[in-house]
Every structure is written in structure tokens, then in C-alpha cells.
């Protein structure tokens, strides 16, 4: 897939895709166009074998300030119910696309990470942050419910029901230290090292068994609402599929030869 982004920056560093939100003067807000283009990009990654991991970040020391107040919030106040539902379904489709692409997705979060930006970060498989970051699901502060873009389903699974309830009801900011201590961030980084460390993890994952990574991500998604017996059976079937791959055979041969395995994603 050839990605020609107009509303964010896209680069490919080897087999790692780099998505950079690029409106630093406004703390990288999302627009109708950038929502749709991000959704289509992540959907397209499902069939792109040249990209094996993705990093999402923002320019100018901030991740994302959510939906643009002038370009989104203002127009929403003038829409009818049909138009509003089309919009909220589109934003939800972006979260689905991030979760459903087989590539591991890492969010590199510094500075402001609020509203829809917090939801995008939540949808990533891992989150690297800084102590200076401020993450807020601030929908309630503009008169909306906290149940937006999957937050009521996903956030409690990341940080627990009580903590998620506090953030979603109050809309307050979660500091970088809180985000790390509560399990929202996988790692705290110095701001100047954030993107480098996120990219390093992405490259590490890209060098791994990519077909198997996609299976792991799928199982993390589908096992949310499975009984334990069903989940164990689903994992038995998934692992049996992975045992048919050449990557599995390569790993065995490398182990016998006391070498490091080279995975090719097949």
C-alpha cells in the first residue's frame, strides 16, 4: 500500500510506519478530514506486509488536543441527529481500525493528550509517555458523556473500573506519573528520548514473528467477552495455526544451532 497522507505526516522507517500529527500551533487537533484519513490508513494496513509496526506521535511537544474546536466542535452544534451519528460512528471507526490492524501500534505521548487524542492513545497496543504529559478524557467538560470512542469499554480494562470512572466523570487530567503508575503508560521516557524509544520498541516488534503478533492482537481483542473455557480453546486453535508457520520452524532450527532466529512473518 502506498500511503500519501494529506492531513498528517507519514514516513516509513524500514518496516515501521511513523504517523505524526502535524498541527503543532494548535497542539495537533483532529479534523473531519484527518479522522477519515487516519481511519482509512489503519484499515489499509491490514493488507500491507511492508509495515510491521506503527508509532503514532505529535509534533511540537504535544500528542493531540482532540477534535478541533473551530473545525469540528462548532459545526457539530449545527448538525441534525443523522449527521451527528455519522460523525460519532466515523470516530469510532478510527478506533476499530487501530485495534483491527494486525500491526502492533505504539503511541508516543508528550504534553497534551486529551479528548479524541486520549482515545487514540487508548486504542494503541502500548503507550510510551513522559512525566510532563497530561491525559484527559474531557468529554464531560463540554457537556458530553464519557462514553466516547470506546472509552467505557477499553479504559477500565487498562486502569481499572474505579480509576476509569473518576477520569470519565470528572474529565480531569491524568499526570504522566499517574498514567504510568495506573498502567496506562507502559514506560515513562524523557521528552527528548520519547520518539526514539517508541521507535526502538516498534523495530523490535517488527523484527519478531509478525504473523504471530497479528494473532496475539486478534486474541486480545476477541477474548474480552469470552468465558475462560472458550478463550483457552480459541488460544489452542490460534497457537496450532502459528505452529504451522515457517517462523516457528526457523525459531526451532535457530535454537538447535544456538543462533538468533530471523523471522519473516510467514
Structure description:
The protein is of the alpha/beta class. The protein folds into 2 domains: 9-206, 2-enoyl-CoA Hydratase, Chain A, domain 1 (Alpha-Beta Complex), CATH 3.90.226.10; 210-256. It has 11 helices and 9 strands. It has a 6-stranded mixed beta sheet, with helices on both faces. Strands 5-7-8 form a 3-stranded mixed beta sheet. A hairpin with a 2-residue loop joins strand 1 (9-13) and strand 2. Helix 9 (210-222) runs antiparallel to helix 10.
The main pleated sheet reads as:
6 strands, mixed
Rg estimate, integer Å: 19 Å
Number of helices: 11
**Percent in strands:** 5-15%
CATH fold-level topology of the largest domain: 2-enoyl-CoA Hydratase, Chain A, domain 1
Sheet/helix structural class: alpha/beta
- Helical content stands at 40-55%
- Give the second-level CATH assignment, the architecture of the largest domain: Alpha-Beta Complex
Q: Specify the CATH homologous superfamily of the largest domain.
A: 2-enoyl-CoA Hydratase, Chain A, domain 1
- The sequence of SSEs as H and E is EEHEHHEEHEEHHEHEHHHH
Amino- and carboxy-terminal Cα gap: 19 Å
Low-confidence stretches: none
Q: How many strand elements?
A: 9
Number of domains: 2
Q: Main sheet: which strands, in order across?
A: 1-2-3-4-6-9
Shape designation: globular
CATH class of the largest domain: Alpha Beta
The overall pLDDT average reads 95
SSE diagram, text form:
Blueprint: E1 9-13, E2 16-21, H1 32-44, E3 53-58, H2 69-76, H3 81-100, E4 105-109, E5 112-114, H4 116-123, E6 126-130, E7 134-136, H5 151-159, H6 161-170, E8 174-175, H7 176-181, E9 187-189, H8 194-206, H9 210-222, H10 228-242, H11 246-256
Parallel strand pairs: 2-3, 3-4, 4-6, 5-7, 6-9
Antiparallel strand pairs: 1-2, 7-8
Helix pairs in contact: 1-3, 3-4, 5-6, 9-10
Amino acid at each position: 500500500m502506498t500511503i500519501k497522507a494529506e492531513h498528517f505526516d507519514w514516513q516509513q522507517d524500514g518496516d515501521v510506519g511513523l504517523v505524526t500529527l502535524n498541527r503543532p500551533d494548535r497542539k495537533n487537533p483532529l479534523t473531519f478530514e484527518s479522522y477519515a484519513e487516519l481511519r482509512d490508513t489503519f484499515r489499509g494496513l491490514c493488507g500491507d506486509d511492508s509495515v510491521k509496526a506503527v508509532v503514532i506521535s505529535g509534533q511540537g511537544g504535544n500528542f493531540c488536543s482532540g477534535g478541533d474546536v473551530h473545525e469540528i466542535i462548532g459545526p457539530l452544534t449545527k448538525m441534525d441527529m443523522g449527521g451527528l451519528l455519522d460523525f460519532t460512528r466515523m470516530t469510532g471507526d478510527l478506533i476499530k481500525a487501530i485495534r483491527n490492524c494486525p500491526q502492533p501500534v505504539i503511541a508516543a505521548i508528550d504534553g497534551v493528550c486529551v479528548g479524541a487524542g486520549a482515545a487514540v492513545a487508548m486504542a494503541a497496543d502500548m503507550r510510551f509517555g513522559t512525566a510532563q504529559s497530561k491525559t484527559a478524557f474531557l468529554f464531560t467538560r463540554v457537556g458530553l458523556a464519557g462514553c466516547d470512542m470506546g472509552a467505557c469499554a477499553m479504559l477500565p480494562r487498562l486502569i481499572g473500573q474505579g480509576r476509569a470512572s473518576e477520569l470519565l466523570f470528572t474529565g480531569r487530567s491524568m499526570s504522566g506519573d499517574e498514567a504510568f503508575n495506573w498502567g496506562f503508560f507502559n514506560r515513562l521516557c524523557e521528552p527528548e528520548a520519547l520518539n526514539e524509544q517508541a521507535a526502538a520498541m516498534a523495530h523490535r516488534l517488527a523484527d519478531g514473528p509478525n504473523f504471530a503478533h497479528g494473532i496475539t492482537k486478534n486474541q486480545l481483542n476477541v477474548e474480552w467477552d469470552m468465558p475462560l473455557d472458550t478463550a483457552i480453546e480459541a488460544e489452542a486453535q490460534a497457537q496450532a495455526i502459528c505452529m504451522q508457520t515457517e517462523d516457528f520452524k526457523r525459531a526451532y532450527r535457530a535454537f538447535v544451532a544456538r543462533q538468533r532466529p530471523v523471522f519473516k512473518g510467514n
